[in-house]
From TrEMBL:
Superkingdom of the source species: Eukaryota
Record keyword Iron-sulfur present: no
Keywords assigned by UniProt, alphabetized: Carbohydrate metabolism, Hydrolase, Magnesium, Metal-binding
Record's protein name: fructose-bisphosphatase
Enzyme class: hydrolase
Cofactor: Mg(2+)
Length: 339
């Protein structure tokens, strides 16, 4: 019997144990972050197990995450991607309305010191055909507990403390960074626990895949068009890259993180800010990419240095392997010098 292998197999690193270990690196910590995260994990488990429900899965996910976060007693506000008709209000929340998309301020008795920005079910146009979809989240610390405003969530991505996503697919995988590396956990349905299966994920420096909705190509700017042209017809003797585009951000980013390459949702003439939302798509995924050794760029700057003006702002994004993102940065730089 291989005792070392057996010992490893039975030494289960659950996500809670992992976060508690991380907490040990911050002696001042009182465990609030661990509690908050365990509520996010609960929301993910619920969504993963929700099969044929009466309610649409995206509506249900909204409700689950809002209630899980409010009841954690560790959040002060949450920003969600909401459909105009999403009925999510719970008794403990105040709704701050900006048209139909709002931030929720948690009532004082349940208030904590964290802001959570999340998309409870990203890629929801894929629900009915069984394609992998996911929850994306980013966590910040509030600035001043006695004076909480929307500015607490309008912070640059560089202020983010932690970010992650949970992908609901052939297996349920939660990828998390609390600032120190990136780790992937797979839900073991028999245990009901996320177990560390992908420790210390590092994205390859260069990849063989590009991922973009090429249906928008006629409206792209010159650097994006040139970049994709080079992926298909490289002039340096390298092989052409493969195109893989699922159209579900969590699935496309997960593949990019594990296999390398680049995911892009660029600006185009019709959508000068691209499509993806800064607070709960661009920032968390950019944070994970950087922590895994990759890069994230908007076409103008490092993505995490953006400062959103509104909670549902969008931004173009190019993220993935370090060298692949360097290539698109060089194309934008040479355009600005020739312009
Ligand atoms: P969806 O519209 O299905 O919710 O921002 C949401 C998103 O999916 C991302 O998950 C995905 O990467 C992107 O939109 C796909 O957009 P296109 O259909 O325009 O390619």
């Amino acid at each position: 019997m291989d005792h070392a292998a057996e010992a490893q197999r039975t030494d289960l690193m659950t996500i809670t144990r992992h976060v508690l270990n991380e907490q040990g690196r911050h002696p001042e910590s009182r465990g609030d972050f661990t509690i908050l995260l365990s509520h996010i994990v609960l929301g993910c488990k619920f969504v993963a197990s929700a099969g044929e429900e009466q309610k649409k899965l995206d509506v249900l996910s909204n409700e689950v995450f809002v209630k899980a976060l409010v009841s954690s007693g560790r959040t002060i506000s949450s920003v969600l991607k909401l459909d105009s008709d999403t009925p999510f209000l719970s008794a403990q929340c105040v709704l701050v309305s900006e048209e139909n998309e709002e931030a929720i301020f948690v009532d004082a008795p349940l208030r904590g010191k964290y802001c959570v920005c999340f998309d409870p079910l990203d890629g929801s146009s894929n629900i009915d055909c069984g394609v992998s979809i996911g929850t994306i989240f980013g966590i910040y610390m509030i600035k001043d507990k006695d004076n909480v405003t929307l500015d607490d969530v309008l912070q640059p991505g560089t202020d983010m403390l932690a970010a992650g996503y949970c992908m609901y697919g052939s297996s349920c995988t939660l990828v998390l960074s609390t600032g120190n590396g990136v780790n992937g956990f797979t839900l073991d349905p028999s245990l009901g626990e996320f177990i560390l299966t992908h420790p210390n994920i590092k994205i390859p420096n260069r990849g063989k895949i590009y991922s973009v909705n090429e249906g928008n190509a006629k409206n792209w700017d010159a650097p994006t068009a040139k970049f994709v042209e080079k992926c298909k017809y490289p002039q340096d003797g390298s092989s052409p890259k493969s195109l893989r585009y699922i159209g579900s951000m969590v699935a496309d980013v997960h593949r990019t993180l594990l296999y390398g390459g680049i995911f892009l949702y660029p600006a185009d003439e019709k959508s000068p800010n691209g499509k993806l939302r800064v607070l709960y798509e661009v920032f968390p995924m950019s944070f994970l990419m950087e922590k895994a050794g990759g890069q994230a760029f908007t076409g103008k700057q490092r993505a995490l240095e953006l400062v959103p003006k509104k909670i549902h702002d969008r931004s173009p994004i190019f993220l993935g392997s370090y060298d692949d993102v360097e290539d698109i940065k060089a194309l934008y730089a040479s355009e600005s010098t020739t312009a």
